[in-house]
Each structure stands twice: as C-alpha cells, then as structure tokens.
C-alpha cells in the first residue's frame, strides 16, 4: 500500500520487541505476517550467477 | 514497537499481549534509491532493521511449532530453559544478541527448520535435530552475555555449529546425535561421551575438535568485515551441507582476492562499497564446479551473505560482490513489498540465462545485471589496453542484457503496482547510460552475442504452432503465395537447465583479449561447439560466415546454432539492406524457420535453401 511519501509494507515491525513480548504477542496481523514469512521460506529463492569459460560475466 | 503494552519483565514469559500492529514503513525516498539500483548506508540500515523483524518472526514461528508439538518438546526437554536464557541474554547484552540473531546463516537455519517441518525439504534427520538449533543458539547467546548455561545440542555427523563462534567436532557419533554443552565464565565447552571440546579463548582459532569461524577485514575507507564461513551447515542456498574446511593457504588466497576485489570496488564505486560494506557480513567460499568458471550466489533468507567459488582474478570477484549485493538488497525489499504476483511459470526470456525464467527470477536478474553494468561502466575508466577493451565489451553486453530484460519484465503480466514503479525507476536509471561512448568494435561483438543468445533461446525453447508450420510447408511445396499468419510460439520449460551459450560469448572475449590465439578457440573445451561460420562471423568476415552456416544447415538438420549464426551474419552486412532484413527475420523467429525447414526437408527429396526459405516466409507472412 502506498501513502504520501511512503509505502506501508507487509512486514510487522517487531524489531524492538523483547523475546518475551514477541512470544506472547497476539494479533491478527501477527498471524498474517507470520504466514507471509512462512510462504517466503517455503519456496526459497536462490540467486545463482556464474560465468562459463573463459570470461568474467556473471 | 511502542504500541505493545506489557507488564512483564524483558525476557520473561509474558502473558497474552494485545498490540496495535505497526508495519514497517518504507520511505518513498528509500524505494526510489533502490529502484535506481542504489541504496545508501542509511537505506541498508533500514533493511537490516526490517530483516531483524523478519528474523524475530521466524523465531516466533519456531517457538510456536515447538509449543504445538509435544514430541519435539519431549525430545528437547531443556528447550524452555533455552528460550529463557535467550530472553535474558537479549536483556543483558541487546547489541550482541541482535548481532547473533542477524547472522545470515541463522536465517537460513530457521527457514530450513520451518520449511522441513512443513514438508518443503527432505531429510532423514529427526525433527529435534533441526529444532535443537534453539539450544545451540541459546548456548551462543549465553556465552556472549556471560551467562552460565547448560544444554544439549544436536550433532550432524558428529558436528555442531555454534553460531558466531565456530564448529565443534566429535568422532564416533551416530549420524544424528547430541552433545552436552555449557558456558562457564563466558567460555563454551562441549562433551560427547569421553570427548571434550573446549572452545579456545579466541574462538576464531582452531583447537582440538574445534574449527573457529574465521573473520576477515578489508579497507581503510569503506570497510568490509566478514566471517569466512566454510563450516556452517546452512551456509549454502537452502539445504544443509557438510563443512569444507579451508586450509591456511586457501584462506590466505581468499584474503588476498577479497582484499584486491574490495580495493577495486572502493576505487571504482566508493558509494557502492560504502553500502556493500554496511550490508555484507559473511562470505562463503563455494567449491569449484565443472562447467562453470566462477559462480556466485545469495539467498533472501541469509541477508548479508555472499557465496562465491574461486575466481580467476580479483576483478571477477569484485563483479560477483557487486552482483550479489544487488540480489541481497532486492531480496530484502521483496520481503517488504512484493514486486510480482503469480508469474511462477518459467516462460520469460532472461538474456543471462539459457533457460526460460519466471517473472520473479527475471526481476532479480535485471537488478543484478544493472549492478554488473554499473560496475563495468565505472571500471572502464580505470582499465587500460586490452583490459579496457574487454571492459568496454562487458559493459556494452551487460547493459544490453539489462535493457532487454527490462523490456520483457515491464510488459509481463503479474507485475504489481510497486513492481511497475520499481522497474520504471530502473529503466530511467539505465536510460541515462545511453549517451555513454562505447567503441564500435565492442558494440559489434556485444550485439552478436546478445542477438545470438536471444535467437538461440527462441530456437531451443519456443515451439511454433504445428498447424501453422504445416501450412507454411504445404504453401512452399505448392509455391503458393497466399498469406499465412505466424502466431505466437509456445514456450517450453527446460528442467535440465542445459547450458548452450558460452561458446560465442567466449569467442567474443577471445577476439578482444588475444587475436593471436583467436583461431585456437575451437580447441578449447568451451569452444568445442564453434564452427567455421562462427569464427568467420566474429572476425568480421560476413561472406565466409554466411557460406559456412548455409553449408552447416544443409549438412546437419540438428544444427540449430547455424540458423542463429546465419541470422547474425546476414544482419552484420550493413551495406545490404535486403540481407539485413532477412537476417533480422531469422533472428526474430528462428524457431519458425527451423521447424518449417525441417518439415519441408522431411517431406521432400531436397531440403530448401535456408536463405530462400527465410525470404519466402517473410513474403507470405500475414
């Protein structure tokens, strides 16, 4: 979602929470954002670059 | 998260907390920087904060998994103590705790554990071996916070990675086993049976049964400080791998290469180096692989980690660092805002890949190749002689790849609103490079490789409508000039990920680097597929090239690259407008030409001339 001068992301900001608070947190948005993260890890995206001989382009 | 209200002390098990959810807010100015291919240290710091949230959410998911599964709890009876110590360590030493949980490989470990428990990864390991990483994490946290602690840690083939510190190894273990572990006075020790591993005072050094996680630092201005990770089982892309301990000689070689590569990046792209230094915290040496010169990699789960196999020189490593830094930034952005939805079918042309790619992969590649082009663009100014000529070619080639990828992605279905804005930003950034002066020779070679790759991709992965091919063949046989509509081709997936494009790319580079050894290219392993036509084409002998490819097509109906070569050769004759148009038609739809040629040849005694056939297809095309 885009607002004036900023984007509202899909990631819940728990960056400053203590583990105790994090584990006790209950919120619908937490469930949704955890589900989003679980979907991301379910299909890991690997970035693989490489160069065949005899060059240096990836 | 100031809207969370709790009376519980930090680190202790809190009661149920109701919160007003706050989502990370991405400033538009940050998005604009990223969509230009940039990203200041301030933006990188923001991404780290967001990734910290993501890492904590992964921990929360693991915590919930364990609480839901009594079997795991039964197999990890001290797990509750681990959670308690983690919380206490966070309260006592918050910065060290934050550094610990942001170790890139911990992100991969948590992701793997969650993925495997949901059937997304296969292993014979009992689940408590995976979930037991919480005990090892608590062991590290306790040591960093100076807390006394004892626990059991899981062993994979007798080894356990203690995050931040290193790997303990025991002999005589079952494939999946456990060891007792503890922290006293900040020092870690582990025991399996009668074997004891005492982690040395400097844990980055080796000791009996212990491989320390080495750390390297480079640069006076922009600095790069990384762990040199050859041991963590989750240092690779998705699944556990065994340790491959580097010898001291190998460490010295990597240190020298990284130092030189970092100097190159710092000199040519100081702003990028400043940001990359704030982002990259782990370097993972990959083993060399047959058929690859240098390969590099990264994954969104391990923010801050770059993987790379031994490069031939520091410039190659600098390119790899710039390349993977772009992927890492984009991986973090995509965690915040999806740039594409759906589009999972690999059906798009990515100029750097020999196989069809899905939309998400294409966007990742575009971003990386914008970064690579930016590197060569700046590096050209530093290089001289042959090195400069090669850099000019690389810049021209990679820039064309990025631009072609952008055209495809911007017209693809499944790009989100944010994705469209992101791609538009990249497009505008790359468009500013259009006025760059690049020597004509470099542009010619880059055009040959780029156009040949696109045509080679089409002729291998695009299936024309068989009814249309039948109609074309019938019309040829009856000499009909009625109009025939040539519709879209079907993109065929390539699960084998066949590599087929390196020979002409190698030939172009050989042409630049060593004209004296140019004719030897066909003797090289990478040049085995080259023909007389290719050698003539890249040397500028268009007439010989055309003859060579025509003969090759007549001799071998499987010679798909002869068709693309013929198209390239015809378009190379700028003085002959008709020939150029004919070549362009072949390069545009080589799969149609090939399928029609084969159909006619199979149904008649003589195969048609490929040039006449191409001209005729152009004439009857509706």
Oligomer: heterodimer
| Biggest sheet architecture of chain A | 2 strands, antiparallel
Give the DSSP E fraction of chain B (strand runs of 2 or more residues).
5-15%
Helix content of chain B: 40-55%
What are the secondary-structure elements of chain A, in order, as H or E? EEHEHE
What count of helical segments of chain B does DSSP give? 23
Strand element count of chain B = 16
Basic shape of chain B: elongated
Mean pLDDT of chain B: 93
Specify the helix fraction band of chain A. Answer: 25-40%
CA gyration radius of chain A, whole angstroms? 19 Å
Could you tell me the radius of gyration of chain B in angstroms? 28 Å
> What ranges of chain A have pLDDT less than 50 throughout 5 or more consecutive residues?
51-58
The main sheet of chain B orders its strands as: 10-11-12-14-13
Q: How far is the first residue's CA from the last residue's CA of chain B?
A: 63 Å
Task: Give a written overview of the molecule.
The complex is a heterodimer of chains A (58) and B (622). With 58 residues, chain A is α+β, with helices and mostly antiparallel strands. Chain A has a domain of 32 residues. In chain A, 36% of the residues lie in helices and 29% in strands. Chain A has 2 helices and 4 strands. Chain A has a two-stranded antiparallel ribbon. The two termini of chain A are 34 Å apart. The C terminus of chain A is likely disordered. Chain B has 622 residues and is an alpha+beta fold. Among the domains of chain B are: 153 residues, no CATH class; 169 residues, no CATH class. In chain B, 54% of the residues lie in helices and 12% in strands. Chain B contains 23 helices and 16 strands. In chain B, the strands form 4 sheets. A 5-stranded mixed beta sheet of chain B has the order 10-11-12-14-13, sandwiched between helices. Chain B has a 4-stranded antiparallel beta sheet with strand order 3-6-7-8. In chain B, helix 15 runs antiparallel to helix 20 and helix 20 packs antiparallel against helix 21. The longest helix of chain B is centred in the first third of the chain and has 28 residues. Chain B is elongated, with a radius of gyration of 28 Å. Chain B starts with 16 loop residues before the first strand and ends with a helix. The N terminus of chain B is likely disordered. Strand 4 of chain A pairs antiparallel with strand 13 of chain B.
